[in-house]
Write a structure and sequence with these properties.
12 strands, binds iron/sulfur cluster, Uridine Diphospho-n-acetylenolpyruvylglucosamine Reductase, domain 2, Enolase-like, domain 1, binds flavin-adenine dinucleotide, 12 helices, Uridine Diphospho-n-acetylenolpyruvylglucosamine Reductase, domain 3, alpha+beta
Length: 328
């Protein structure tokens, strides 16, 4: 399958890339590892006028400790994350999740920035032009209807990334650079939850780095997918728990992927968990609550009820795992 024609830029600095992007933001795209973008371009899901390659900008692929904070450059690959000694020692969960993205070839090419900014997915949209030609174009493709839900103007295409849920559970922030300088926002706020335009980046903004505060508590990530070898999640879950000094839970974070237009945090289930002990009754109640809180749409071949059920099962498994005492 061939790529469509486009103008290709190789900026040497981030400022140059920002200027190029801001000059024609609607018809430009950023290229990092290309594992998401180039597939979409080959399928004519997007046909940009201008492709701006971030990989020609030096010093954007790093992993470093700055005081207590861990900073990861947007161009660090997922393989960099899984093989970095600093990450393995301080945030082993991040190394683990990086090995769960697609398959090794994608981890070697794919970057953290590209993973966080990857396009939302829908079974009516992520298809070849030939396949899509059988139906009228949907809102996300510039048309006047949605093939999934009948809510005027709304698109519920689904965010299916693996890294975002666990980084949100770790309370990561992102630094973005744009025409008006830099700003730092919580990773959770990077997602607009609007399927048509899933990121809250402003015109000309580029994700520069991810900032992670010192580790506390314990974090788990469970991914349910069709094939272990290479596949997006059907549902996945990041669970983070901090004890309050007794047997009770002080702080809990429960974040799902592949069930909404961005990573989905189930606040009600978190509140139910906080100040509780991890007994069987709590685990049952919290898992049911989380399954109720998410609203998956029919954007993949898996039904919303199946995703809901699997979300509850994943959370129950994760909570039961927390009961296992660490070996001494
Ligand atoms: C078969 C297959 C299986 C996959 N499985 C998974 C999976 O299991 N889990 C998963 O999470 N992903 C999966 N992916 C998607 C993709 O491979 C990964 O998300 C990868 O990490 C994307 O990174 P990249 O550098 O290749 O991004 P690119 O393709 O280069 O970019 C992706 C998007 O992010 C934007 N972007 C890139 N960098 C920046 C930046 N610094 N600032 C702002 N915007 C930016 C680009 O413009 C583009 O829109 C899969 C892809 C394929 C083809
Ligand atoms: S949810 Fe609807 S509008 Fe969005 S991509 Fe799918 S079919 Fe298109």
């Amino acid at each position: 399958m061939r790529l469509p024609k486009f103008e290709y830029l190789e900026p040497k600095t981030l400022q140059e890339a920002v200027r190029a992007l801001a000059s024609d933001a609607k018809r430009s795209v950023l290229l990092a590892g290309g594992t998401d973008l180039l597939v979409n371009m080959k399928h004519r899901v997007i046909e940009p006028k201008q492709v701006i390659n971030l990989k020609t900008i030096p010093k954007l692929a790093y992993v470093k400790n700055v005081k207590d904070e861990l900073r990861i450059g947007a161009l660090a690959t997922l393989h960099d994350l899984s093989s970095s000694r600093v990450i393995q020692e301080r945030f082993p969960i991040l190394s683990h999740v990086a090995t769960k993205v697609g398959a090794y070839a994608l981890q070697a090419m794919g970057t953290l920035g590209g993973n966080l900014c990857q396009g939302n997915r829908c079974r009516f949209y992520n298809q070849s032009a030939f396949w899509r030609g059988a139906k009228p174009p949907c809102y996300k493709a510039g048309g006047k209807l949605c093939h999934v839900v009948r809510k005027p103007g709304e698109c519920h295409s689904t965010y299916c990334g693996d890294m975002a849920p666990v980084l949100i559970a770790l309370e990561a922030q992102v630094r973005v650079v744009g025409p008006n300088g830099e700003r730092v926002l919580s990773l959770s706020k990077l997602y607009s939850r609007d399927g048509k335009r899933p990121l809250s980046l402003r015109k000309g903004e580029i994700l520069k780095e991810v900032l992670i505060p010192p580790p506390s508590g314990k974090t788990l990530y469970l991914k349910w997918r069709r094939r272990e070898s290479i596949e997006f999640p059907i549902v996945s879950l990041a669970l983070h728990i901090e004890k309050d000094g007794t047997e009770k839970i002080g702080k809990a974070r429960i974040i799902f992927s592949a069930v909404g237009s961005g990573p989905v945090e189930t606040i009600g289930a978190e509140e139910m968990l906080e100040s509780s002990s991890l007994d069987n009754r709590t685990i049952e109640r919290v898992s049911n609550q989380a399954a109720k809180e998410i609203s998956p749409m029919r954007t993949s071949i898996y039904s919303p009820s199946y995703k809901r059920r699997m979300a509850g099962i994943l959370l129950r498994q994760a909570l039961e795992n927390f009961q296992i005492p660490n070996p001494k």
